[in-house]
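The records we work with from here on pair a chain with its fold. These numbers are not coordinates but entries in a learned vocabulary of local backbone shapes. To see the layout at work, look at the sequence and tokens printed below.
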Amino acid sequence: MSVAVRSGVIVGLAAAALLGMLWAYSLGAGAEQNVFNPGGQTLLVMFTGAKLLFNLAAACTIGSLILVRFALSPAEPAYNTGLRFVAFATTVWTLAAALLNVMNFQLVGGVSLFSARFLPDFIAFSTTAEAGRSGLLSFVIAASVCALSFVIRRRTAVAGTAVLAFTGLLPLILNSHAEGAGDHADNTMFLVLHVGAATVWLGGLVAVAVLHRVLAPERLGTVVGRYSTLALGAFVVLGFSGSLMAWDQLGSRSSLGTTYGAIVVAKTAAFGVLGIFGAVHRRRVMKQLERDPRQGTRRFMLLVVVELAVMGAASGLAAALARTPAPPLESAPTDGPLPAPDGWSFMSEWTIDPLWALVCGFSAVIYLVGVRRIRRAGENWPVHRTMFWLIGIAALFTITNGGIHVYQAYLLNFHVLTQMLLSTLVPLLLLPGAPLELATRTIQTRSDGSAGGAEFIQTIVRPAVAAAAAAPYVPVLVIAGSLVTTYYTPLLEFSALDQPGYALMTLLALASGCFFTAALAGASPGGRHLLKKQLAALAGAVVLYGVYGWGLWTQGEALEGAWAQSVRPWGPLPVFAPKTAGVTLWVIAGGTIAVLAAITVRRKPAGKGVSPEPDITRSSQGGAGINSGDLAATQIDRRVTAQGARQD
């Protein structure tokens, strides 16, 4: 990799970002004073510039790690070149994190860098003040990623380092949210998703630009195609989170005339231009890379240079926007008691959870795209599987965004209802949709040594489910751990008060429920001996839920009292007495276990000696057939599936 190319990409990106930031500040962003006056505004601009450098270096680090892990093979030279670029970017990130913390201290404390008080006061600021601790934590994480970047080589280590690097953004994101929320709604998850998507999009494109010289022209098209998949997902997340977050901050169209509104309009225009660039990439440049790799490479790089300039300007606008006060809302939101829950309130009370709204949207669209691919290949996909999947996604969306979501933050009963529906009802609806079989038949396996979705399913997901099916007590222990974590740790309060806590609780409940249902509702690969073990595991689940339900029944008053003090108060509603949470758990768990037991007893056990993880065999149309690998999907309505195959 040429040092000049690497430096040119970084300098050009930083210059465009700096110009965008200065333009935003010329509007008066971030302060009452002029941009460069002796009253401290110069320091504020320098601080914003350091934050901009921090953001760009972090994006280059995280985006490059993800691209290296997702698109490249460890055997090709570009893999090591990408890791060297990561080491360069994370070094800049670490220095920027240190500089940012020092400037933040000077903004807050006003202590000169050359004063004798600077060092002790800075240490106190970094260990006691919330802003100082956030900056110090970001610096420690950036420095850790920097150290790892010089030694990692294995793909698992690269993936772990990427996750660690992303956590380095969270302290400053959460701190900036706490400072700037004011009378606006909690948009923590919107901000996390927005920053994460921008990081993947920008950093991945920089990595492609840096690596294109060490990639063969024929190979570049493959890498660009894989990056394009990541960029498309990031574009959707960025647009969704950005639009809702901007509307929450502006509140009305009249606010578009404010400084904050003008910067939002400029960012929106840049986002639209980038969307056009992305469409050109997918529709023309990628096709030209396939037809004429050398000519396509020149055209691709020309477009990338312009695209990076626009991205840099948008990053500068974002840095200035973060220091610009949002216009006050005409009517501040109130946190008073909701109406008593009834059928109408469940339909009328909605609050969008950004993470799970996106998960539901992506899950439905990707599934339908997979079904379309199968149909185009001339293969059959039963309609009842698609219906099960879409109904399950609709149920997940309703639970995480509808009235149940609203009331779970106020009433312990509805919090229990949320957790139980996510771990029981939703998995029972989703698994008959056969998502693993659909993914196996539609996601192309790779032959270049890299690892994508198909390899992840084959090497991690299927072996985990097969191992759990062979030892059915394991998913019961997972459910037990999920219940303990949800009800007997600070997650109970955290999940009601904050969007990240609710997202974590939802993920824990849904993942443990899907794992439990998949392992116990699949085929019996070990014959009747394993069938007895599965029935014993279901009996153990009955005891488990019985004990937890009894605990909620007997401790409901104490839990509700602590809930009202630490979460949100609620008026006396005897019909929703706290101990009914235990009844809720019993009823839902009992119905789910009854369904699973019926599936287990009625199915035909596999023959003795059959492997718990069946081989995947290609059909004459190029698809893949799986017998028990898709668990409950193959067991529910087997006759419908067989009849559809004969008609095809």
Notes: The two ends are 52 Å apart (CA to CA). The CA atoms of residues 8 and 210 lie 10 Å apart.
